[in-house]
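Forum: Protein Structure Q&A
Topic: Joint prediction for protein chains with partners

I've read a bunch of threads here and the consensus seems to be that you should model interacting components together rather than docking separate models afterwards. I'd like to see that in practice. Below is the full input, 1380 residues plus whatever partners are listed. Could one of the regulars post the assembled result?
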Amino acid sequence: MSYTASVVGGSGFTGGELLRLLAGHPEFEVVQATSRSKENRTVGHAHPNLRGLDLRFSSPAELESVDVLFAATPHGVSMERIDAFREAADTVVDLSADFRLDTVSQYDEWYDGHSRPELLDEAVYALPELTREELPGAEIVASGGCNATATILGLKPLFDDGVLTGDEQVVVDVKVGSSEGGAGGGEAASHPERSGVVRPYAPTGHRHEAEIEQFLGLDVSFTVHAVDMTRGASATCHIFPGEPVPKGDLWGAYRGSYEDEPFVDLVAGGGGVYRYPEPKAVAGTNRAEVGFELDPENRRLVAFSAIDNMMKGSAGQAVHAANVALGIEETTGLDFKGLHPVGAP
Amino acid sequence: MSYTASVVGGSGFTGGELLRLLAGHPEFEVVQATSRSKENRTVGHAHPNLRGLDLRFSSPAELESVDVLFAATPHGVSMERIDAFREAADTVVDLSADFRLDTVSQYDEWYDGHSRPELLDEAVYALPELTREELPGAEIVASGGCNATATILGLKPLFDDGVLTGDEQVVVDVKVGSSEGGAGGGEAASHPERSGVVRPYAPTGHRHEAEIEQFLGLDVSFTVHAVDMTRGASATCHIFPGEPVPKGDLWGAYRGSYEDEPFVDLVAGGGGVYRYPEPKAVAGTNRAEVGFELDPENRRLVAFSAIDNMMKGSAGQAVHAANVALGIEETTGLDFKGLHPVGAP
Amino acid sequence: MSYTASVVGGSGFTGGELLRLLAGHPEFEVVQATSRSKENRTVGHAHPNLRGLDLRFSSPAELESVDVLFAATPHGVSMERIDAFREAADTVVDLSADFRLDTVSQYDEWYDGHSRPELLDEAVYALPELTREELPGAEIVASGGCNATATILGLKPLFDDGVLTGDEQVVVDVKVGSSEGGAGGGEAASHPERSGVVRPYAPTGHRHEAEIEQFLGLDVSFTVHAVDMTRGASATCHIFPGEPVPKGDLWGAYRGSYEDEPFVDLVAGGGGVYRYPEPKAVAGTNRAEVGFELDPENRRLVAFSAIDNMMKGSAGQAVHAANVALGIEETTGLDFKGLHPVGAP
Amino acid sequence: MSYTASVVGGSGFTGGELLRLLAGHPEFEVVQATSRSKENRTVGHAHPNLRGLDLRFSSPAELESVDVLFAATPHGVSMERIDAFREAADTVVDLSADFRLDTVSQYDEWYDGHSRPELLDEAVYALPELTREELPGAEIVASGGCNATATILGLKPLFDDGVLTGDEQVVVDVKVGSSEGGAGGGEAASHPERSGVVRPYAPTGHRHEAEIEQFLGLDVSFTVHAVDMTRGASATCHIFPGEPVPKGDLWGAYRGSYEDEPFVDLVAGGGGVYRYPEPKAVAGTNRAEVGFELDPENRRLVAFSAIDNMMKGSAGQAVHAANVALGIEETTGLDFKGLHPVGAP
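Posted by a regular:
Agreed with the consensus. Here's the joint model:
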């Protein structure tokens, strides 16, 4: 194994996914997982699938020296602890939003400001399909957010290929699973209240809107609904391109963007049960499915994308980014194909 | 009991709901329920909640004379059999789409044409909140469709009150349960394939678009997703009103439309777990929840509405319409309040 | 309306069900609902289906005088407050376990003892199918527990009819929904951890074992699993009657016990999809389904029963008991038939 | 890659799992997948997670020569086609029940007889934890059934270690997911009818009883319930050992049986949310979780076991068996750890 790694915030959901991926990754050795609430307990106490790992959570106060530190902490923690993180590791991969945006004014608008603005320039946003070139050698990697990743992957080909100008009306209606709320629970997250819902969870003003707008350079109208699954984010983008777009151009745009991408599949209206992107079909994987349909009646283009929010939307994307940053073959440790059939993912 | 009633197509899902509602309705006596596939079997064989009903399915070929015939048959059946239905009953309440649209050209565009166009004028569309005045005495009642009902109820106050002009871009993103596919099954409807989905089920071109556009007089961009619930339809309407709308005006518009409506509740951003309309909260009832939120950032208005597709979107609406058509107090037989908590409705 | 009623503990799940049932009951008028955590909030804040009720939670410290007080409080509260409850009301219907058992020694063994043992004799256990005769005029009614009710209803005919002697090995394997854990949540109850489970939740030693053994007079081996539904309790009883029992005798026993019972249906191996008792089929209702199958190979009898734990297992049973206690027609206010289809109840 | 392989019945659920596992297995190359219903379609048409596989279904009539043929066909097909299978392959791994039992009389009792009884002796039952020694070189491998595997793994240590004599009363109450019904659907398997159920699906007489009794040498009383998950089988075994068993002896028995088993984990009453075996915790993996609890009150021992019916109960077990039969390291291709959190598996 070539690199040592640690996971700060290892008892949360994305921390657990990181530990699972790193434990199965031939180039990483996990030497530390921290948890404030489960210090001294085994990793398997929090994550039943990792009972086989011989590792106990340690205090986040004492970080071991590693090659790569993955921070799976709530927003705000990484900006406070970034010096300690960098002292402990050459490469810091942050899964929170703390280093995703470019400017303090965005953090003022969408979050509670930023305590280390001088680092925003240095941090590299990691949605490898967008920023692959900038990742090698990056010291602070800001792994892209789940809903933003789903949305950006659905919309990006339309900009890459000039189908859209950026002035179009774009409505993004996202459906997400309960794991987006994180571990721990609370009344709204309890099974009796949360099961079977279609719940407007961020009717307007979801923070990922900032991330999408920054990376696509356009305004989107963004709404998030909670639905009954645990993993998964599905983005449906309704776009009004002004004038009719030939379907062949769309196929060209999507193929052009994704035909060489190892983690993006184009799924658009074929036969069988699974004709468009679905979170079920990518659950547990680092894959995204992207597809589209034309609505000539309304001069509308509908783009669909589906990811596992815990994987392509979080821990998988972070490992993918680390692979690229360190020069490891991109797909290493991320080859799980997903299951069929599978229930609510 | 004042009226005799029959249900044609009684072994399907909406047929079962009709039988349940009519059996508990003080003004109706069910004298016949037909089923091609379950002839001679008890009603309880198809609907376990109705095992207590002493009634067997009979052949749809021989219709008994009743005051009101409810037709819960697949699209196309009612237009073929309408003469027989009218011979059997003074009032025909059709739950299919066969008499909902106004013109043959709409049926040519959205369905497979129409065999009895001369009756389209006579039929009265039944979404009582819209067409209450026209229902008394109607002989053919065309009960509004599920997804159309959810959408129309969410958008209607904006037109009633002049908030919208009809030229706005309107995107309607609907999430529906598996009962919309009807009884019987099939591979895509099987539990292993259908559970846990967020599936673009009608990406574009859903037939209810015609119904919405006819009754609201505007173009909508309509997309339907299947999600993991059995009952329920949730419509999220993203509307771009051109210029900013004060929130107070919106409250005024929604209150003005619905404050006297017995089956519509306004739910918009209060406290607790259930802050916006949710299908769970209305499951089993004839109620609709309607709410909205402003997105000043994007000059967008988001309207939410939630119904039980089998009730307010189908059987409940049909009984409500029959009540109005016959002069029975509107809410009779429709007072079930729903359950809390409830799982996937 | 003939009787005034109050609900102590109105913001919990069973409190909400009581309020729903009482609000729709022609003989009761709800004059007070208490809640420590939601004092001054509307009932609809806790229970979205009850937004139409014009009632706010008040403090449990000040109880109004009513005819009937329903206590939907955690175990231990009623025995502490029973004097205040009785001062406020002529009839106290307690939904907790505080007055279900006969002797202090049982409370010592299964609970944390009892502070008012002198009242145990006076309290009448309410599982009306068992104790109907004792309820009229009762001042303390101890409404039967959910898992106990399901189990007792499945086993009772075998004792009534002498099929069993009481010396048989009886294994009871119960499957329950998440509402049994009550409102509030916690990590194990959170949707990501709780959805899709088959979780041994009380492998042995569940307190309802005491209740079952007391009322049936036999030892049962009792195990409870949590499964993915919100409402519902399904008891499968595996019984070894020593010598072969003719199927006809079993039919006789079950019919003899239940043919006149308004809330118990016998469902045993007919046609269609629903051949045996299922919680889905009784969700939202006060009905129990009971059925059985013979396993001659293993000289085993398998009895199935299914209830809605919130209704026949709690609030519905309490209202049923109050009806009997007060001389109101038994089924009043409890006539909801349930829905078909319905998702996870 | 050392071995060529084919999958007969590749469009079914277990066929899809086999294709997934073999495609990720370093020692196998899949050269053929057959399907009657999806001939000429891509494998991805049936299994969305396998869209990346460049393989089309071919007719089962023309079998290619391979080293190992996996038959994932309905019961009865393998015994009819066994000569063709053996002509095509040196090793036939059959996932059906056709070669699991030892004698024609068992097939007469539990199935519809057997057309090739002379092969029953030759076939090796594959539940590698039981029959590891007999597998190397086997030409017909009969991979163990899902519910039987769960049950046997839960009970086996009690026999290995002499805790049980074989005369005990043993009740096995199994809960299974919808994938056990196979692909295709049907009314009872449709989402509206199947979701949220606790359904007695094989109250008595399930065919796996024969398999369990054959391999454990004792009578079991076996009942199977369908619950709301897609994958998973959970067996709860209630055992009455006659006289008290010290808990330490049980730990000894279970540890002795499983401490060296790569695919069996002992989970019995520790801390955290997952204290006993749960299907969720093993979904997608070839692992089994096994645990137990003592009920001294009732002189009962409760053993729990949980597997993914599609993996350890079918395709995973088949690949595990092939690994052993061919001398490949046992865990090759079967190292997926499972996910946390995960919804309904």
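Chain B touches chain A through 54 residues (CB under 8 Å).
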